[in-house]
Amino acid sequence: MRPSIESVRVDISYRPLRIAWGIRAGDMDAFRAAARLSFALWGGRFNPIIIVDHQDEAESLIDAFRVDLIFPIGDSKEVKAFVQRFPYLIKPFFHDSVFIGDGEGGARSQVLDIHNALVHLQRKPEWKRVKEQGMRLYTWAPDDPLADIFLIQFGDYPDRDEVLIHYRDLLREASEAT
Q: Which domain covers residue 45, as residue numbers?
């Protein structure tokens, strides 16, 4: 008698790393930094901004977004303590930053970023249509009363001095944006 052979099926779904940005309630600088970081990363719109002061809602968002790691923004004890509540969500980084390098041609993101997306899209017909239709990059005054709305609606990137990568120039060059 032959032993029965069972087969196993494994489905693998690839997606960018999902990062939850942990901030304190009312910390608008941390909110802006999280938004800019999300715009710089491929799949960044799926990276929730978690208000750690509201623990029940924060835990619900972590579960709903199937977060892979929580990255604290800011130096508050509450943000750092919140991250410690999820020991199974580890940082897969070599350093405590998403970005590494010296900026002398060596600065890189440790996760997929828009540079990877632009390289991927460069030869696609969809990208050619985007370039033909024209892309616009917007700017606004930092003290504009609607600056945070514009940030969320139109997007912006982290300051080059902060991450050592000039994402806006990368996008402008790749898209021939105005």
A: 19-89+111-175
